[in-house]
Amino acid sequence: MKKWLPVLLSSVFTISVVGCSQGSTIPKETTNSSKEQLTINMMTVSYAGGGWPEDHPVIKELNKKLNINFKVQWVPSDTYAQKLNVMAASNEFPDVFYIQEAEFNKWRDKGIFMDVKPEVDKYANLAKFIPADGMAKMSPKGKYYGFPYYVTDTRDTLAIRKDWLDKLGLKMPTTTDEFYEVAKAFATQDPDGNGQADTPGFSFGIVNNKFVHIEPIMGAFGLGNEWSEVNGQLVPMQVQTNELKEFAAFMKKAYAEGALDKDFPANKQKESIGKLEAGKTGIAMIVPNEFFNGTLPNLRKITPSAELVQLLPPKGPTGKQATPTLQMTNKIVINAKIDAAKKQRIMELLDYMMSDPGYDLIKNGIEGMHYTKGNDGKYQKLDAFDKDRPQLLSTWFFRRFDPDIQIRKWDDQEFAQKVRSVFEINEKYRWKNPAEGFFSETVTKKGSGLQQKWMETMTKVIVGQVPLTAIDDAVAAWKRDGGDEIIKEINAQYQLLK
Predict the structure, then answer these.
(1) Domain span including residue 451
(2) Residue 417 lies in a domain
(3) Disulfide: which of 9, 114, 205, 380 matches 334 by Cβ 3.0-4.6 Å?
(4) Long-range pairs, 296-305, Cβ under 8 A, ≥24
(5) pTM over 0.85
(6) Same domain flag for 395 and 463
């Protein structure tokens, strides 16, 4: 790959390509209007802006195409696991639903999920666009309990306010020390010019008792992406005492001196991005393929001259660099308890979503309503795309294994190539979890409580309520109250798969 220097994302992300459009269509019988209409209840996660109303045009299109009554329940990401557990208590799961790793592992062998392996080869698009290794991950040998939710694993990147750097005469930070000094300057030297010290340099959040959107700093201090491989053994982040202390000391200083957003403990999934877009912070994790249509325009509504550049992961004390590396461990599952006719119709629905016309629908919307095609063959987005957000099924529910998942057909080729280049750059700093998808019975039984107590201590250390030495007690308690069993169970699987 060509030598790369940080580039203004506002110019990097100005153009895109038509997404891949291959694959066979669904069997003819799936569009046969003589079939009995079936109600399909689906549930998935939602983020900023929430989901669709019941009369959404994409839902109407799917209803007409497959003769279904498609009912979608959108649940906020911060309460999704809680919602699933409430459903489990009453054994009233939806017909088809998105499920996260912890809940999938907890219920995997309880007869809740349909084994789709005997059926998947009957559906050409599912077989073509969902790789077999992705299907098999986390399921017992010979079974496919659902479909993988694809993620571009080295997708997200740090971004920094270039206009603020220039105004304060600062250079691009390359180490954690320089990152800190820039963040402190943003907090104390009034880069937005409003006469107040109200712009903390960076922010992050805590979701499901895990740190989010601060991964490059965690990795820089040697922490693992949940787990690390050390001398042939897997070690959980929760017991990396020395690395935890270095990370917490950095954050504690940043918090005390205003470089870190004081409200970080209460931040939800996307609030750190929202604060960057609102001009309240100067550094945040962003999603490159949402940058041009969301992050930068939102920021420029407030500050028209704002500039953002990609910030490479800062080097830690030992030279380590890390980019957030997402895990492909969430699933789309079909309720094993529903009748055979409904199972088949759901398979047809999912297969249609992977077909050329179906994928075009859930990714780009409806031609004539959400976009148009000119006589020159070029596509143009219509205002209804931003209003209706017809792409939500492909972003929050089900998708092909497609790095261009958020590239639209009206976007320009150059933009798409620039986005791919960011993914490729991030690959250099991959921060892989060597225990991805491994199952621990103790995690199922005790993991949530252990993590909550551990995170409470970490948060108190960062905000200055307890000393750094409290981390020693937190590590000891995590190991004593179930962590040692978790380590044994995860390593047993690791040794079998090495």
Answers:
(1) 441-497
(2) no
(3) 114
(4) 296/9, 296/10, 296/13, 302/278, 303/163, 303/192, 303/279, 305/163
(5) no
(6) no
